[in-house]
Amino acid sequence: MTYDIAAIRSHFPALAAGTAHFDGPGGTQTPEPVIRAIADALAQPLANRGQVTLGERNAEALVTGARRAMADLLGASPSGIVFGRSATQLTYDVSRTLAKTWSPGDEVVVTRLDHDANIRPWVQSGATVRWADFDPETGELTVDAIRAVLSERTRLVAVTAASNLIGTRPDIPAIAQAAHEVGALVHVDGVHYTAHALVDVEALGADFFVCSPYKFLGPHHGVLAARPELLETLRPDKLLPSTDAVPERFELGTLPYEFLAGTTAAVDFLAERPAPRATGTRRERLTAGFAALEAHERVLRAQIDDGLAALDGVTVHSRAADRTPTVLLTFENHSTADAYGFLAERGVQAPAGSFYAIEASRHLGLGDTGGLRVGLAPYNDSQDVDRLLTGLTDFLKR
C-alpha cells in the first residue's frame, strides 16, 4: 500500500514554517483533524459527565469514545483504559498503589535502558531495587539480563518497549514470560514504542502499559492500559465521593474532555491517513496503517544510516538489531549542543541531551550530556533527511 507522504504532510499546519522536524521522540506536530476535534469539543456544550443534560451527554460521549479509540490502538479493553495527566503521573500512581501491598524485602526490577519515568517511581517505592543492564556496545537488553536479577521476591519488572534515547526494542514477550514465571507483574513504558509500532498489550504480556498521545500526533496527556480484572484488585488513593468503578477510580478530578477528543482524532488519523484504502474495523485499519508507516520509516532510516556512515567523526550509539527509527549521535571534537544549535539555524530540529533517559546516557559513557537525537515521525520525508545530512556535513566541516 502506497504511503502518500505529500498527503500526510498537508494535514500538518506547523510544517508550513519550513522546519524539518526530527524531534518526534519528544513530541510530534499536530495534524489539522486533531486540532479541529479539540476546538469542536470546546465549542459544544460540556458539563460533568452524565445523561441528563446535553453537556453531560457530550462529555460522556467524549470519554467513552476516547476509551474505545485507545483500546483499538493498544489491543486492550476499553474498561481497562485509564487517563491521566502524563505517563509519568500514571506510573507514580501505579507504583504507590502497588507499594501499599508489598512487604519489606520485596523486590522490583528496573533497567538502565529506561526513561527515568519508569525507573524513579519504582526506586522510590520502598521496595528493594534490582538493576538490569543493557550492553552499551550493542544497545541490546536481553531476557537473560532480566532473568539474572529475578527472584522469588520480585514483585514487578519495569521495562521499556523501546528506548526513547537509542531506539532499542527489547523482546518484551520473553521478558514478560520470565517475570510471570516468578509471579511478578510487568509494567511496560510504551511511550516511544506506540509511535512506531502497532501495540498488542496481551501479546506483549504487559500487565500495565503506559503511553502518551502527544508522541503519536495527539494532545498532551497520558494513557494506561491494563486488564480490568487486575485494576479491580487495586485500591488507589481517591476522594471519598468519587466513584469506585474501574477504570474511573484511578482518574483524579475532571478529565480533559477536549484532549480526549483530540486523542480519538489522532487514533483515527493513524487508522485512515497512512493506509487510506484500508477497510474493516478501526483495529484492522490501524494494522494496515502502521504497516505502511513502518515501511515508510524503514526507508528513511536506511537513508539516515547510509548518510551517517559516510561522515567522519560521527559515533552512532543506536545499534540494536531491533530498534525504532531513532538515532543517538556524538561527534569527535564537536559538541552535540553546538550541533543542535547549528542545525536549528538551518531549519532542522534535532535536539541534544539525555532526554530523561539519564541512566542509559550514563551507561553509554555519555554522562548527563547524552547526544544529538534524530527521530522520525509520520510526516518526515526524504527531503527532510537530505537537509539533516547536509546540515551535519556542514557542521563537521567547521
Report what the structure shows.
With 398 residues, this protein is of the alpha/beta class. The chain is built from 14 helices and 13 strands. The strands form three sheets. Strands 2-8-7-6-5-3-4 form a seven-stranded mixed sheet, sandwiched between helices. Helix 2 (32-43) packs antiparallel against helix 10, helix 3 (54-74) crosses helix 10 (257-272) and helix 10 (257-272) crosses helix 11.
Task: Give a brief outline of the structure.
With 398 residues, the chain is of the alpha/beta class. The protein contains 14 helices and 13 strands. The strands form 3 sheets. It has a 7-stranded mixed β-sheet, sandwiched between helices. A 4-stranded antiparallel β-sheet has the order 9-10-13-12.
Helix/strand layout:
Elements: H1 5-9, E1 20-21, H2 32-43, H3 54-74, E2 81-84, H4 87-99, E3 107-111, H5 120-123, E4 128-132, H6 143-147, E5 154-160, H7 172-181, E6 185-189, H8 201-204, E7 208-211, E8 222-226, H9 228-231, H10 257-272, H11 282-309, E9 314-316, E10 326-331, H12 336-345, E11 348-349, E12 352-353, H13 358-363, E13 371-375, H14 382-396
Parallel strand pairs: 1-11, 3-4, 3-5, 5-6, 6-7
Antiparallel strand pairs: 2-8, 7-8, 9-10, 10-13, 12-13
